[in-house]
Amino acid sequence: MYYLIKNDTLVDQSEIESDLILISENGMFITDSWPPIGKKFENGNWREKTISEKTEDGEISLENRRLILKTEILNFLSIKLEQGVQFQGFNFQAREEDLIRMSLAIKKIELGGTWSGFWRDSLNQWRELTSEQLNELALTAGNFWETCFRKSRTLIDELPSKNKTQLANYNIQAAWDAIN
């Protein structure tokens, strides 16, 4: 079924879209649902519903909303780790790959290898660090990674217990900040 709409009023409906095209006038539009799925009439215009409104109205299932939020939480985690930690007045990334590289460099030093004395910051600038400072950076970045990972897993693990309203209005930053 197709519906011809002007403002928030249903003008006509038909099983054949071309029938409505013939009688359509300026300011009207045709949709395959009434009211139009994913849209809300507000201030004289139809606008796209927010994801919260779609969740509240049942246009997004709770399971899909949980999956969307899980992906958004993982993206939030990735951004946090990419932003990294402050150390010696510079910012260093704290992604897993960065921690692995630090661990390998520290292990190399422990085995008697030569330390270059430099590590890249988050702006890809080489920064001079002693081997002791590298150890401190690795601990600082590792602690930050651990905290971020724990927070992200806590948020993800709590999603199944959230009701429709909580999922619809979920604020990742606020939930993240609420975890110590």
From TrEMBL:
It comes from the Bacteria. Residues 87-162 form the DUF4376 domain. This is DUF4376 domain-containing protein. It comes from Leptospira bourretii.
